[in-house]
């Protein structure tokens, strides 16, 4: 998420390009981008696929082998329009967006009042302001999302006291409550059990996979008990920091004014090591979006006898530093650690994080390059990471509803198929595209749960809060 709350609130109260996408006909999204191709595309393409399948079947007196099925699939893919291939991928593989900020949009626009018939109808029919509503999720063939329950950093960001952080805890509870109320209002559309085992079942039943994520450990108010309570309420990942340091780790940025942060702990603090261990034990995914380079390396590689996270981690909404040199993005040496630890970077689509150049600004922040803020630039980040460390380690975390600007061609959740088609046009295979849209995130989620089960079976102790009993 971009710096808030003021920026987000001004964004939420203004017209948004997403409105131009409302009312899209599904048939429009199936058309090729190239009119000449549409005119010249022969009907024989379909006949080729049918003929190949018939030849394979007629040529074998036994059931078709796996090898021949793969040959047939590859030949058919060659002749099938990428838009139709994209739709087929999304039909059989859940697209799980790793970071969607619907809750903060609801708070800013509607003050969390979502029980009116007007709001429910707007969410259902696709006329809600912002980037996300149910109609556009369905139009975009979404398989679900990690719904961020964001709370802003405290005004006194360098005060880590329980008293200073208490409002952040209450803010988080409000956000969890409103998100769960949305999910519960549409039980036929949203899955209410946030675990990886039920995720594919929910997808096959037509429901959107719907775990939550907190965006900074300031939100737990220095309490492992709160972390566990949030887990019980559906939170399945916790970002270690937002744009402020906390008791547990260093952030990449600081606010007021927004700038690259100066180190406080030099990475993960002693308290942070204990909390990450508790997150591993609990089955809470560790998220490294927003954290400093030192924090990234500590968690992925360990430090001073500490092994780092026992479970794979994610970057829920970060992009490639080599393409856009922003402190929020992930450098190549960290990407290689991501591969070593079987972890995952979910690419953020904000123009600030995909299209920028270093201008030696005193803030340490780059300048946004408007002309490159496009869908193709998002694809460039995904393929860069995929080509560097493998497509098992890259996915999508758009930050929709948490960003002011969006890339041209990828304005809201209805455009997910456009992203998949663009990946295919860029040479990404169908199987790798399936990993990017959601299979990788499901794998990480399951592995985090497996580590949790192993730690509990081994008797790993619960992290108790160190507080004086009155």
Concise synopsis of the structure shown:
With 470 residues, the protein is an alpha/beta fold. It has 19 helices and 12 strands.
3D structure, described in words:
There is one protein chain. The protein is α/β, with parallel strands linked by helices and 470 residues long. It has a single domain, classed as Metal-dependent hydrolases (TIM Barrel). It has 19 helices and twelve strands. α6 packs parallel to α19 (430-457) and α13 (270-282) packs across α19 (430-457). The radius of gyration is 22 Å and the shape is globular. Mean pLDDT is 88; it is low at 4-46 and 55-65. Keywords: Dipeptidase, Hydrolase, Metal-binding, Metalloprotease, Protease, Zinc. It comes from Drechmeria coniospora. InterPro entries: Metal_Hydrolase, Pept_M19. It catalyses: an L-aminoacyl-L-amino acid + H2O = 2 an L-alpha-amino acid.
Helical percent range? 40-55%
Q: Looking across the biggest beta sheet, what order are the strands in? A: 1-2-3-4-7
Question: What is the H level of CATH, i.e. the homologous superfamily?
Answer: Metal-dependent hydrolases
Reported CATH architecture: Alpha-Beta Barrel
Distance between the termini: 39 Å
**How confident overall, as mean pLDDT?**
88
Classification by helices and strands: alpha/beta
CATH topology: TIM Barrel
């Amino acid at each position: 998420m971009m710096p808030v709350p003021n920026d987000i609130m001004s964004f939420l109260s203004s017209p948004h390009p997403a409105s131009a996408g409302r009312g899209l006909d599904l048939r429009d999204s199936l058309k090729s981008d190239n009119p000449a191709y549409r005119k010249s595309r022969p009907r024989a393409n379909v006949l080729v696929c049918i003929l190949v399948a018939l030849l394979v079947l007629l040529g074998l007196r036994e059931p078709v082998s796996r090898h021949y099925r793969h040959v047939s699939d590859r030949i058919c893919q060659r002749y099938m329009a990428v838009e139709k291939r994209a739709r087929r991928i999304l039909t059989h593989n859940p697209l799980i967006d790793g970071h969607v900020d619907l809750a903060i949009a609801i708070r800013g626009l509607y003050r969390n009042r979502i029980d009116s018939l007007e709001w429910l109808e707007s969410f259902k029919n696709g006329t809600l302001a912002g980037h996300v509503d149910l109609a556009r999720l369905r139009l975009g063939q979404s398989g679900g999302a990690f719904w961020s329950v964001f709370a802003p950093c405290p005004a006194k960001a360098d005060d880590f006291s329980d008293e200073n952080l208490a409002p952040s805890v209450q803010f988080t509870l409000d956000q969890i409550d409103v998100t769960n109320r949305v999910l519960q209002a549409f039980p036929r559309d949203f899955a209410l059990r946030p675990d990886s085992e039920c995720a594919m079942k929910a997808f096959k039943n037509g429901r959107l996979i719907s775990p939550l994520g907190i965006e900074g450990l300031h939100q737990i108010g220095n309490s492992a008990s709160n972390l566990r309570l949030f887990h019980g309420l559906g939170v399945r990942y916790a970002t270690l920091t937002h744009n402020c340091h906390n008791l547990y780790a260093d952030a990449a940025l600081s606010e007021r004014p927004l700038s690259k942060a100066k180190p406080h702990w030099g990475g993960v603090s002693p308290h942070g090591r204990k909390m990450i261990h508790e997150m591993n034990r609990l089955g809470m995914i560790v998220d490294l979006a927003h954290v400093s380079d030192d924090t990234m390396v500590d968690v992925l590689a360990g430090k001073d006898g500490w092994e780092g996270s026992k479970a794979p981690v994610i970057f829920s909404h970060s992009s490639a530093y080599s393409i856009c040199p922003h402190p929020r993005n992930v450098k190549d040496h960290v990407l290689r650690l991501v591969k070593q630890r079987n972890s995952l970077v979910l690419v953020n689509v904000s123009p600030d994080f995909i299209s920028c150049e270093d201008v030696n600004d005193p803030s340490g922040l780059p300048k946004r390059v408007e002309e490159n803020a496009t869908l193709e630039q998002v694809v460039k980040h995904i393929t860069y990471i995929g080509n560097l460390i493998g497509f098992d380690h890259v996915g999508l975390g758009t930050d929709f509803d948490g960003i002011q600007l969006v890339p041209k061609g990828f304005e809201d959740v209805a455009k997910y198929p456009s992203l998949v088609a663009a990946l295919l046009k860029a040479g990404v295979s169908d199987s790798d595209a399936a990993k990017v849209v959601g299979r990788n995130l499901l794998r990480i989620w399951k592995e985090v749960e497996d580590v949790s089960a192993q730690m509990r079976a081994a008797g790993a102790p619960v992290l108790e809060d160190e507080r004086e009993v009155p």
